[in-house]
Amino acid sequence: MGGKRKKNDDSDVEESKAVSSNKKTRTTEKKDQLRPSMIKNKEKRSEVHAKLKHQKKLDKRAKAKTRDAALKRALELGEELPEKKVPRTIENTREFDETVCKPGDEEELFAGNDADEFSSILHKQYTPKILITTCRFHSTRGPAFISELLSVIPNAHYYKRGTYDLKKIVEYAKNKEFTSIIVVHTNRREPDALLIIGVPNGPTVHFKLSKLVLRQDIKNHGTPTSHKPELVLNNFTTRLGHRVGRLIQSLFPQDPEFKGRRVVTFHNQRDFIFFRHHRYIFENKEVKKPESRDKKDKDGKNENVTEQTTIARLQECGPRFTLKLISLQHGTFDTKGGEYEWVHKAEMDTSRRRFFL
Amino acid sequence: MPRTTTVECAGCPPLRALTFDVLGLIKVVEARDKQRGVAQVVERWGEPESSKCVMAVSMVDRNSQPLLAVARKNKKIEVLSPVNGDIQATISDTSGLDVQSEENNIVGLHLFEKQNSELPSRCCTLLTCTTKGNASIRSIEFADSSKESSCIDSPKTWNVCSGGNILCCKVDGNENFALFGGKGVEINIWDIDNLTKIWNSKPPPKNNLGIFTPTWFTSATFLMKDDHRKFVAGTNSHQVRLYDISAQRRPVLSFDFRETPIKAVAEDIDGYSVYVGNGSGDMASFDIRTGKMLGGFSGKCSGSIRSIVRHPQLPVVASCGERYSIISFHLVCFLWMKRLDSYLRLWDTKTRQLLSAIFLKQHVVHVLFDSNFDVKETDLLSCKEQNLTEEVEATPLKRKKSARNKEHIQDGSERKKRSKHSKEHKKSEGNDGREKIASRNEPSKPKLKKKK
């Protein structure tokens, strides 16, 4: 910089004037654009920045005020409410996917459903019977997780893995008329993968398991009863998602005991499947304003005019974990000779807005 | 801005393909635009029913009276017209089978193109092969679609293997030899006329650790149309092997492809490149003379590939003489394939670019080309022909061509003679090429051994 300046000093006065004039115009531009990052003096910059921030805040407040006013007026006059803006999220700007099940292709979808491996269970011809086992070596959180899985899934039986091959276990399960096998894979004393195998000819699904929180670590957790739970499957939209959803559905009995008030939720969001296990309760509570704030709306009729309102309260019990689909393989477990229906490949992750489930 | 559109496909030239899925539906996919059309499902034949799952298909792809045979899971074989989907004959395959088990499905089906002279015209000859290895050849006559049509003569049946499961069954271009192979079954080649086994392969030796990989062929294809001596087979242990009957019983060349079993192998018409698809949705083309990969076919593939079909040399073109056939070579090189993720994808073989991907809602089992698509609809759109002729000469020729085709339809016998003639002609040419390939293969052998 110094050298440059010297050069400037050496050069004609006119030129320097021109430069200064240039600088002046630039500063005015700065003020117009109000970009604090272009200011080099820190004090000045932070000042401008604070000013800008404040202005923004005011604008926002004013905007909200006018919006609220418009809404209020519309309510008073009984007019149509102004349109509510929907924020643009990754989910609602999802890439177009033609495999999403739409109304109109029910015929083929249902025929496909009837033909798949789970239809006999889902039509209550069989009651699901689950075999839970582990990888060869497991300890610490693995057994704890399995004991909680046993309390979540009815009619599940834990078998020690021993040194048996998984293919042998599949054979065994076939003979003993199990309907699915769940293998909890542990790495470094932490469960990190879940393998669900449909028996006798169902597909094999490999999930990555993460964010496992056991019952003990959940604050104010409850202990589940042995009633058959209700199942909530959210957002399984595509054909692949549909299939995974049906596989999960086939793990649970199809006749929930509502008396138990247990809900097991598999919520799919951006290809991550969140597992939650809750117990719900309806309470009559005296509230001055009847506001229904229940997310899991088991009853839609809480518009009571009286002060007594029914609210649903949730208590979380059982583990909490997240699954991500790695592969869906046709037939029972066979990594070498298996035929995959879907495999996650790195080349598919080119967009944040493409989801497969 | 969020990218809300998917990667665009280049679009494909006019063509017509038939896809067969798990629910027994046959869907017709057509691309009609002259230049870069979007392939769409235009027709659907049949009602969805899981017992009608398609096991094997075969088509006689010709101008006059094309036929399509479909073997279903309920052991029925239907002969359809690929033009409109009318069922011409149905036979149930219970007669020839002694074992009535679930597993004994039909895995191989071939509809013979050449017809017996003594048989009436309204009939066709079929080769079927079941998982247990019961092969049979029968001729059936077309009756009314309501009745079950019966075989004319008693079917010639024989057993291909004593144990194991047959997984692949192919008939060579001249329809004299059939190839069978599968899980625990080495590849057999049978002379169809005399029903004698002429050759069977020998497993490769144990490796340096003394481990023997069990035989498990999943797919096979003859390398050239009029040469039954060379074929390529894919194994469950992700190996692609080239066999030469005239050379040795062990593979002449073998190489690995990725890590999941090879599920589909298809040959190119040039006689040396093959397309290989595997269980996790990878596909690539190989130069079989050297075993080098020419390139992979990418395009968000995620499901197992069940069949690969190359667009056949257009019969329209072939009937017009050698000159056109050479041209067609460069122009129309497409590849169809299907996969377990229920997409039908279409690639260009030269650029290996994805031209089109069609979602078909069910797991698709097979795909076939109807290369006579435009010939039948000359009035509507004779795009393929145009495509070719535009390059070659002006339009008058096209008319001539279509006129010629009609002639062919009228007198099939003459056409057959002519085609035979041309085949012979090709053979003489092909022989030279084969020898060349063989000589090229020789030096590649020791290389491979070194690698191992």
UniProtKB/TrEMBL annotation, chain A:
Molecular function (Gene Ontology), one example:
rRNA primary transcript binding
Q: Check the record and name the Pfam families matching this protein.
A: Brix
Q: Where is the composition biased (Basic and acidic residues)?
A: 7-17, 26-50, 287-304
Question: What residue stretches are annotated with the Brix domain?
Answer: 128-334
Tell me a GO biological process for this protein. Answer: maturation of 5.8S rRNA
Compositional bias, Basic residues, is annotated for 51-64
What PROSITE patterns does the annotation carry? BRIX
Q: Which GO terms describe its cellular component?
A: nucleolus; preribosome, large subunit precursor
Region named Disordered: 1-66, 287-307
Q: What is this protein called?
A: Brix domain-containing protein
From TrEMBL, chain B:
Task: Using the UniProt annotation, give all residue ranges assigned to the region (Disordered).
Answer: 393-452
Origin: domain of life? Eukaryota
Q: Which Gene Ontology terms of cellular component type are present?
A: nucleolus; preribosome, large subunit precursor
Q: Which Gene3D superfamilies match?
A: YVTN repeat-like/Quinoprotein amine dehydrogenase
The Basic residues compositionally biased stretches are: 415-425
Which GO BP terms, alphabetically?
Answer: ribosomal large subunit biogenesis
Basic and acidic residues composition-biased segments: 404-414, 426-445
Which InterPro entries does the entry link to?
A: WD40/YVTN_repeat-like_dom_sf, WD40_repeat_dom_sf, WDR74/Nsa1
SUPFAM superfamilies noted in UniProt: WD40 repeat-like
Q: Which CDD domains match?
A: WDR74 (cd22857)
Which residues fall in a coiled-coil region? none
Q: What is this protein called?
A: WD repeat-containing protein 74
